[in-house]
Amino acid sequence: MEELNWKYWYTDVDKDKNQYTYEECNRIGPVDAKYVKSSNKDFNGNPFIEALPRPRDGNELIKAYTCPIPAVDMGELDDMTINEQKETVLSLKRLRLPLSFHKQLEFINYDVVSSSYMLRKMYVWNEEDIQFSINEQTTRQIIKMRGKIEDSAPTGFALLGYSGCGKSTSLKQLFDNIPQVIMHHPDPATNITQITYLVVSCMPNSNFATLYRQIGEAIDNALGYPEPVYELMITKKCRSLAEKQLKVCELIEKFSIGTIVLDEIQLINFNSNKENSYEGLLGIVNKTKIALSVVGTDEAYKKLFGMLRNARRAGEYINASAYTSDKEYFNYLLSMLLTWQWLDKPIKKEQAQELSDTLYECTGGIINMLIWLYKWIMIEYLDNRSKGKIVIINEKFIKSVSKKHFGQLKGAIDMVNQAKVEEMEDEQILMLAESDKNKYEMPETNVENLAYESKMINIVIGKVHQIYTDVTSDDIARYVRQILAEDEYHRMKPTEVAKEVVAIITGSPTRKKRRPSSKAPASKNICDYISNT
């Protein structure tokens, strides 16, 4: 077994652009890798990170998360029957507006996936390795991505919020920018598959055996298989839950899967699942270093990750409902929604301000509820108009439509509004407690020394690999740290450290320690000094 490294060439693309086309990002099946040099030097040389599109920001982000619908032509509307008119309103179900958590989700997902790939490396087993280890006689190679079991497990993200606040839709818009299957070609005879993400939508009353089956199904779908292959491998050949877990681990390593996102976690049947089932799921994270993220409600999250050792794996918390408490943001969404009106006299900005409080009260500020209610307001208006009735869009009309179509949801909306009031009260209490609590100081760390060591290791690894390709990067890093421990004043140049490393590798007697030079580096920045080779 040896670490697999290869050289690749970067694609010339603008900093704010995706190296892949929209068609490539949404293709079922593999896309040939295109690499873009990362501004983070830790990522340079890692093909599984530099093949990923960078997170979107600014105008690109807003355009990506906004899905408009056709404009309303009142002239065409007059020539339609009432049912045809109401049919055009149904386009509102496809309308998507940018939400405040989208920027956070975009960046955190990139952080999650890249961190997962930083903890793993690609290894190759040649024919002689295979025969020795598992006694197979066929001539072939096995290539897998593995992490070290002793390394800390990566964290994912927890996208939590009220039902209808836009979590699942945002997840789709997030992954529309990333090819799901990327194919790497270290040489013409070798193909390495990288499944960047899997989204598993939890089934109602599902258990963890079902969840593992769905992971196999998601792999089949990503690869474009017409018939179940890996789904059957997990369900038919693995009887116990432990066997299913091990098979999932094997597939994660085989396909270099970056992250698994569990959507709608509130649908899991918690009553029939024991704590050890959750531990088994997180055991997969420990073994493979894949990032596990969850999407759902706060209540389900607390049941699934109630214990600290479990909760920390879910990582970054993204409050998808936060915008619902921001009245100013609600008004912004309403102003965008009013771009599409089926009214003889359009609602103007001044009127919108008057209607805002009523719409907010009826929807709890939730985007799905807002668009849903707005759709029925327009349909009811057209219905009355066809009967010759004059309707004024005011507080009374909005509440009557809400009662007619959302009467069964009133209790839930009232609970949401009450929760917001309680949340504001809790925040005030926490602010007072914050001013009184004891302050703790973090232990001092010599960051400059850590940066010096990291940069020296990267330079020496590059130099040594030019001669000894079979020596792992981990071994070289260990030798460099060993040498630097004796170089108290950081006087050695990278070429000198590389020679010492080669001496350790070859077993040659190392030269005697030289007397430290009194010459100080020309630059005050140690990292600048070691780069001057």
Chain-wise SSE layout:
Elements: E1 2-3, H1 22-25, E2 30-32, H2 47-50, H3 58-64, H4 74-78, H5 82-89, H6 102-118, E3 120-125, H7 127-134, E4 142-147, E5 157-160, H8 167-175, E6 181-187, E7 190-195, E8 197-201, H9 208-223, H10 230-235, H11 241-254, E9 259-263, H12 275-288, E10 291-296, H13 298-304, H14 308-314, E11 316-319, H15 327-337, H16 349-363, H17 367-386, H18 395-406, H19 410-436, H20 447-465, H21 473-484, H22 494-506, H23 526-530
Parallel strand pairs: 2-6, 5-10, 5-11, 8-9, 9-10
Antiparallel strand pairs: 1-3, 3-4, 6-7
Helix pairs in contact: 5-17, 9-11, 11-12, 15-16, 16-17, 16-18, 17-18, 20-21, 20-22, 21-22
Please summarize the sheet with the most strands. Answer: 5 strands, parallel
Percentage of residues in helical conformation: 40-55%
Low-confidence region ranges: 131-139, 421-447, 514-533
Strand percentage lies at 5-15%
State the total count of DSSP E strands: 11
Structural class: alpha/beta
What do the pLDDT scores average to? Answer: 82
Number of helices: 23
N-to-C terminal Cα separation, in Å? Answer: 32 Å
Q: What is the CA-atom radius of gyration, in angstroms? A: 29 Å
Q: Enumerate the strands of the largest sheet in spatial order, edge to edge or round the barrel.
A: 8-9-10-5-11
Shape: elongated
In short:
The chain has 23 helices and eleven strands. It is of the alpha/beta class. Helix 12 links the parallel strand 9 and strand 10.
Structure description:
The chain has about 525 residues and is α/β, with parallel strands linked by helices. The chain contains 23 helices and 11 strands. The chain has helices spanning about 20-25, 45-50, 60-65, 75-80, 80-90, 100-120, 125-135, 165-175, 210-225, 230-235, 240-255, 275-290, 300-305, 310-315, 325-335, 350-365, 365-385, 395-405, 410-435, 445-465, 475-485, 495-505, 525-530, and strands spanning about 1-5, 30, 120-125, 140-145, 155-160, 180-185, 190-195, 195-200, 260-265, 290-295, 315-320. The strands form 3 sheets. It has a 5-stranded parallel sheet with strand order 8-9-10-5-11, sandwiched between helices. Helix 17 (about 365-385) crosses helix 18. It is elongated.
